[in-house]
Every structure is written in structure tokens, then in C-alpha cells.
Amino acid sequence: MVEELDKRIEVLASWMFKSERLVVFTGAGISTDSGIPDFRGPDGLWTRRDKGLPAEWRDFPIAAPNEGHNAIAELQRLSKLTFLISQNVDNLHLKSGIRPELLAELHGNITKLRCSRCEFMMDNFDDGMACPICDDRMVSSVVNFGQSLPPKKLAEAIQNARNCDLFIVVGSSLVVYPAADMPRLAIESGAKLVIINDGETPLDVQAHLRFEEKIGRVLPPAVKQLKKLMNG
């Protein structure tokens, strides 16, 4: 019901307004409106694969941030975003204007290289070049199955999850670990948990506020109401 959704959006806006340490966590679901399918949705990559259908998606460089990405970037401009943790490799958060120091892309970024020793990051010009900091090898920053997450970014994510007072999950099924441990850490530290995802997650029963509606129907209007609260 629209009225019931409006009330939950009001609650979310109020919580964001009161929050002093707001952390957002995004998964593949936030990028579907940019033409990049998720993994386990009705037309997701793994869903199509399991049905014997081809798994296709638009090239990442072509995709542009959508209203979900832009709503998070607006939280940053309003000085309400403490940190953003993402499972995505599509570069859309950086494209939207998120500052790199506020972002942990736990699974890497398809447009970036990472030093295999010191974790220095740079644009992907030449996979074979040496790190300008420590002269070690620059490799793709994308984390493949079985590989470890980047230690520095993982540590930043854990620290911010444990220190936040409001943790908002946007477009993630919360089944890929260790990234999906972040909301658990937030709950254990006393933070409120909000989940915006159109599929079930293992933490639904622990969420203080749950949205199954599309991200575009929830996050942008919530940020708009937040701005009204901040302007008195």
C-alpha cells in the first residue's frame, strides 16, 4: 500500500536525520536500473545460468549512475554519509561523485588496478606496469571467487560497520561472505538496520525497517524528506 510505504519512508528519513554515523552497504541490486543485472533476481546472472539461458549484461563502462546511486551521493553532499561499503565492481559509485576515501569497494573495481603489495589503486591503463609507490606488480583490483578481499578496505569496512548507528543495506541479498558480515557487525554494535531489497535476505528478521519495494521508490524520496528535515 502506498500509504504504508510513505510511513516507512518517513521513518527512514527521520532515522537518517538523527544519525551521526550513517553507513550504506550496496549490492548488485542498486545497479539494475543502470542496465547491469543482479545475480539472484528473476533475471539475474545466476538465475539465467541455472535456467540454461545466456547471462548477458551491458558493458560496465557504458553504464551510468541511476537515482539510487545519486541518492547516496546526495547523502554525502548533505554530510550525512559516514561511509559506503559496496560489493559492486561497476565503478558507478565513483561516477556518481562518491569520494574514494568514503568508499570501500570490497570486490574491487573493473576500471582500477591494485598493487599486489601495498594496495595502491590507480586507473587501469596497463595491467603490466609496476606500482609507482613500491614498484611491485599492478593487477586487476577485481576480486574473483576464492580470492581474499583487499585487507585495507576490508578493515575500513569492518571499523565503520562497528562504529555506525544506522546501517542501510541497498540491493543486496546478503549471502556473499565476508562482505555480508558487515550488517551483522552493525547490529551487534547496537546500530539500527534498514534493508532495501526486493528479495529475501538472511537478516530480514533482524531488520528494524524493511523495504521490498524498488530502490528508486524508497531511497530518493527518503533523501528528499531528509533534506526537508535538515532545512527545518
Query: How would you write the strand order of the largest sheet?
Result: 3-2-1-7-8-9
In the predicted model, the low-confidence regions spanning at least 5 consecutive residues are: 40-51
- Estimate the mean pLDDT confidence: 87
The main pleated sheet reads as: 6 strands, parallel
Task: Draw up the topology in text.
Blueprint: H1 2-18, E1 22-26, H2 45-50, H3 67-77, E2 81-86, H4 92-96, E3 103-105, E4 112-115, E5 121-123, E6 138-140, H5 151-163, E7 166-170, H6 181-188, E8 192-196, E9 209-211, H7 215-230
Parallel strand pairs: 1-2, 1-7, 2-3, 7-8, 8-9
Antiparallel strand pairs: 4-5, 4-6
How would you characterize the overall build of this protein?
This protein has 232 residues and is an alpha/beta fold. The chain has helices at residues 2-18, 45-50, 67-77, 92-96, 151-163, 181-188, 215-230; strands at 22-26, 81-86, 103-105, 112-115, 121-123, 138-140, 166-170, 192-196, 209-211. The chain has a 6-stranded parallel β-sheet with strand order 3-2-1-7-8-9, with helices on both faces. Strands 5-4-6 form a 3-stranded antiparallel β-sheet, with no helix packed on it. The protein is globular and about 55 Å long.
